[in-house]
Amino acid sequence: MAFLAAALRSPREVGTPVPSGPSLARRLAAVVPRGDVDGRRPVVVELGAGTGAVTGEIAKRVPPGSTLIAIERDAGMAQQLRARGLGADVVTADARTLHQILAERGLERADAIVSVLPWTLMTPGQQRELLAVLRDTLHPAGVFTAAAYSAGYPMPTARRFRGELERGFREVVPTRSMWDNLPPAMTYICRQPVT
User: What is the homologous superfamily of the domain 2-31+41-193 according to CATH?
Assistant: First the structure.
């Protein structure tokens, strides 16, 4: 109910009235390192964590001792996510403050950033600004993945988002639509950020 309430309260910020389905959550979490990265435990950040549909899958995947930061702007959903006890450091904040969030934890970069933010509802300036933050905070060998809803794919904002990804990353791999998700969705897997 917290997810639906947040979607009704702020539809442009939540993007969909239902949380990610299990198959989309697994696909998004699939990029998360299962072991050490350069001899250290990985740092994973989730943007738009909601009530934890994707967070739970990420938590199953990361090795013990990893850092999992789940950023959720809506205080009600963040509180519900904290109550689930998934082992994530839940932060109620705007994703654009990722530099500060990492710095407060003595970290500089993330090895994986997973996004369930409604990119197609953002203005071009918001897309560019947030992607710049993500490229700056992603380890050069890291991976960024984002969910995109298939019904919106033909929209100019969706095409613009893909263009921004292709300008900001040397490798952008779109996945096939997952028709069993409500609404149907696909993901982008992005590597080699352009800084």
Answer: Vaccinia Virus protein VP39 (3.40.50.150)
Residue closest to 135 by CA, chosen among 158, 156, 159, 115: 115
Q: Where are the domains of the chain?
A: 2-31+41-193
pLDDT, tens digit (0-9, with 9 covering 90-100), for 35-89: 999 999 999 999 999 989 999 999 999 999 999 999 999 999 899 999 999 999 9
Nearest residue to 68 via CA among 30, 103, 41, 31: 41
Residue 53 to residues 109, 118, 159, 188, Cα–Cα distance (Å)? 24, 15, 26, 18
Alpha-carbon distance 3 to 38, whole Å? 37
For residue 53, the cross-strand partners are none
Q: List all residues 6 or more positions away from 172 whose beta carbon is below 8 Å from its beta carbon.
A: 162, 165, 166, 188, 189, 190
Instruction: Show Cβ contacts of residue 125 under 8 Å, excluding neighbours closer than 6 positions.
Output: none
**Mean pLDDT, to the nearest integer, of 130-141?**
97
